[in-house]
C-alpha cells in the first residue's frame, strides 16, 4: 500500500477547503484495513477516516494519516418473504446504494436519496432527511478499532443513535473505522410520505399510488431545488444541527415570535435553525469567499478560495447573533478539524 506525504485534501472535501494531510492512504479492500492500521507508527498518528468529505471542515493541515475508504460490494446476507438484509461496503457511494435498492423494489431508504457521501459515514451522524433516519433500517455494522486493529460488530442499539448522533460521535469518537453496514429492507415497502415537502410534491405531481421509485424521484427533485450542489459551490449541507429545546422554553419564545418554525420531535421541540439564522438577517451575507447561502441560510458556502478558518469565523458570528437574539446556542453538524 502506498502512503503519500503532504497530500492536498482540497478535492477530498465538498467545501473545497485547501488543507494538507501529512500522510494519506486509500483502502480498496476490507483486508487492507487491519494491516494498514497496525503498521502505523507514532509519527503517523492521529488517524482520520475519510469518505467523500461532505461533512467536514478542515481548519488546518492534518498532522497524521488520512485514510480514504474506497471499498466496494453489496451482498444479500439474509432473505425472508417480506424483508431482506444487505451488507454494504463502507466505500460504496450512499446514493448509488439507494438507487440499487429502489431499482430492485427494496424499500426503507428511498427518503434518504441524494444525500452525499459514502455508506461507511452514514451511521456516524445517523443520516436523516424527509422524515426518515438511517437508524430505522440499520441492523448492524462491522468496525475495526483504530489503535488495536480489533474487529467488532455493533448492533443498532449499541450504535446509540439519536438525531444527527451516534456513539461514534460521542464516547467512541474517531476510535473506529466502519468497514461495512448491514441494512434490513422491506420487499413490501410502506411509504413514508408525511414530511411536508413530500406531501406537497405528491399533490403537485398528481400520482395516484406512488411507488418507492416515485418517492426517490420526488426527494431528488426537492433536494435539487433546495440545496446547493457542491460541484457548483463548495458546501457541506447544513452547517448546524436543528436545536432541540424544552417545551417551556419554546412556549416563552413562541409568545415573542409567533411565527417561529418547529418540527415534531420526541425529545422536546426541534426548531428550524434556518429560520433562526434567517431572522438574524444572515441570508446571502458574504465575507471574502465565505458566505451564507442566499436561499438556505443553514448552509455555509465557499465561493472559491475561503479558508477553513474564514468559514469557522463566519459560523461563530452566526452562532453569536442567534444566541444573543434567541438565547439558543447552535451546535455544528459539520465535523470541524
Ligand atoms: P465524511 O465527510 O468524509 O466524514 C464524515 C465523518 O464520518 C468524519 O468524522 C469521518 O471521520 C467519519 N467517517 C467517514 N467514513 C467513515 C468510516 N468508514 N468509518 C469511520 N468513520 C468514518 N446529512 C444528512 O444527514 N442529511 C442530509 O439531508 C444531508 N444533506 C447534505 C447535502 C449536501 C449538499 C451536503 C454537502 C451534505 C449533506 N449531508 C446530509 C451531510 C453528509 O452528506 C453526510 O454526513 C454524509 O454521511 C457524509 O458522508 P462522507 O462520506 O462525505 O463523510
Ligand atoms: N426557513 C426559513 N428561511 C429560509 C429557509 C428555511 O425560515 O431561508 C425555514 C422554513 O420554514 C423551512 C425550515 O426553515 O420550513 C426548514 O427548512 P428545510 O425543510 O429545508 O429543513 P432544514 O431544517 O433546513 C433539515 C436537515 C437537512 C435535511 C432536510 C430535509 C438538519 C440540520 N438539516 O434541513 O439535512 O435534508 O431537513 O429533511 O437537520 C444536512 O444534515 O446536511 C441536511 C441538509
Question: Main attributes?
Answer:
337 residues, alpha+beta, Uridine Diphospho-n-acetylenolpyruvylglucosamine Reductase, domain 2, Uridine Diphospho-n-acetylenolpyruvylglucosamine Reductase, domain 3, Uridine Diphospho-n-acetylenolpyruvylglucosamine Reductase, domain 1, 3 domains, five-stranded antiparallel sheet, four-stranded mixed sheet, 7 helices, 23% helix, globular, binds flavin-adenine dinucleotide, binds uridine-diphosphate-2(N-acetylglucosaminyl) butyric acid
SSE arrangement:
Layout: E1 4-8, E2 20-27, H1 33-39, E3 47-50, E4 56-57, E5 62-69, E6 74-79, E7 83-89, H2 94-103, E8 128-129, E9 132-133, E10 138-145, E11 151-155, E12 176-186, H3 196-205, H4 212-226, E13 234-238, E14 244-245, H5 247-256, E15 262-263, E16 269-271, H6 273-279, E17 286-287, E18 290-292, E19 299-302, H7 308-326, E20 335-336
The chain binds flavin-adenine dinucleotide (FAD) and uridine-diphosphate-2(N-acetylglucosaminyl) butyric acid.
Flavin-adenine dinucleotide (FAD) binds at residues 14, 48-56, 69, 90, 115-118, 120-122, 124-125, 127-129, 176-178, 227, 230, 235-237, 335.
Describe this structure in words.
- There is one protein chain.
- This protein has 337 residues and is α+β, with helices and mostly antiparallel strands.
- The chain has three domains: 4-69, Uridine Diphospho-n-acetylenolpyruvylglucosamine Reductase, domain 2; 74-186, Uridine Diphospho-n-acetylenolpyruvylglucosamine Reductase, domain 3 (2-Layer Sandwich), CATH 3.30.465.10; 234-336, UDP-N-acetylenolpyruvoylglucosamine reductase, C-terminal domain (Uridine Diphospho-n-acetylenolpyruvylglucosamine Reductase, domain 1).
- It has seven helices and 20 strands.
- It has helices at residues 33-39, 94-103, 196-205, 212-226, 247-256, 273-279, 308-326, and strands at 4-8, 20-27, 47-50, 56-57, 62-69, 74-79, 83-89, 128-129, 132-133, 138-145, 151-155, 176-186, 234-238, 244-245, 262-263, 269-271, 286-287, 290-292, 299-302, 335-336.
- The strands form six sheets. The protein has a five-stranded antiparallel beta sheet with strand order 6-7-12-10-11, with no helix packed on it.
- The longest helix has 19 residues, at 308-326.
- The model has no long low-confidence stretch (mean pLDDT 96).
- The protein binds flavin-adenine dinucleotide and uridine-diphosphate-2(N-acetylglucosaminyl) butyric acid.
- Flavin-adenine dinucleotide binds at residues 14, 48-56, 69, 90, 115-118, 120-122, 124-125, 127-129, 176-178, 227, 230, 235-237, 335.
Amino acid at each position: 500500500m502506498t502512503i503519500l506525504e503532504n497530500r492536498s485534501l482540497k478535492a477530498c472535501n465538498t467545501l473545497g477547503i485547501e488543507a494538507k494531510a501529512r500522510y494519506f492512504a486509500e483502502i480498496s479492500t476490507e483486508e487492507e484495513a487491519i494491516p494498514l492500521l497496525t503498521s502505523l507508527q507514532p509519527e503517523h498518528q492521529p488517524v482520520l477516516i475519510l469518505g467523500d468529505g461532505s461533512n467536514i471542515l478542515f481548519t488546518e493541515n492534518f498532522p497524521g494519516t488520512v485514510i480514504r475508504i474506497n471499498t466496494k460490494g453489496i451482498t444479500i446476507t439474509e432473505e425472508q418473504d417480506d424483508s431482506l438484509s444487505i451488507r454494504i461496503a463502507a466505500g460504496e457511494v450512499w446514493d448509488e446504494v439507494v438507487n440499487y435498492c429502489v431499482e430492485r423494489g427494496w424499500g426503507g431508504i428511498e427518503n434518504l436519496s441524494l444525500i452525499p457521501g459514502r455508506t461507511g459515514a452514514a451511521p456516524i451522524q445517523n443520516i436523516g432527511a424527509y422524515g426518515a433516519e438511517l437508524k430505522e433500517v440499520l441492523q448492524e455494522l462491522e468496525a475495526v478499532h483504530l489503535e488495536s486493529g480489533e474487529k467488532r460488530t455493533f448492533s443498532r442499539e449499541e450504535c446509540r443513535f439519536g438525531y444527527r448522533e451516534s456513539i461514534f460521535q460521542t464516547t467512541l469518537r474517531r476510535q473506529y473505522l466502519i468497514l461495512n453496514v448491514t441494512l434490513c429492507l422491506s420487499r413490501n415497502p410502506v411509504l413514508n410520505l408525511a414530511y411536508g415537502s413530500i406531501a406537497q410534491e405528491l399533490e403537485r405531481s398528481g400520482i395516484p399510488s406512488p411507488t418507492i421509485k416515485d418517492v426517490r424521484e420526488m426527494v431528488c427533485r426537492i433536494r435539487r431545488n433546495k440545496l446547493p450542489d457542491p460541484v457548483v459551490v463548495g458546501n457541506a449541507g447544513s452547517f448546524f444541527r436543528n436545536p432541540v429545546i424544552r417545551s417551556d422554553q419554546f412556549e416563552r419564545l413562541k409568545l415573542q415570535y409567533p411565527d417561529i418554525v418547529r418540527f415534531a420531535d420526541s425529545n422536546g421541540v426541534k426548531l428550524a435553525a434556518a429560520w433562526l439564522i434567517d431572522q438574524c438577517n444572515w441570508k446571502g451575507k458574504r465575507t471574502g469567499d465565505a458566505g451564507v447561502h442566499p436561499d438556505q441560510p443553514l448552509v455555509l458556502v465557499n465561493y472559491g478560495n475561503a479558508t477553513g478558518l474564514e468559514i469557522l469565523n463566519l459560523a461563530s458570528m452566526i452562532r453569536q447573533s442567534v444566541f444573543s437574539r434567541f438565547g439558543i446556542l447552535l451546535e455544528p453538524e459539520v465535523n470541524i478539524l
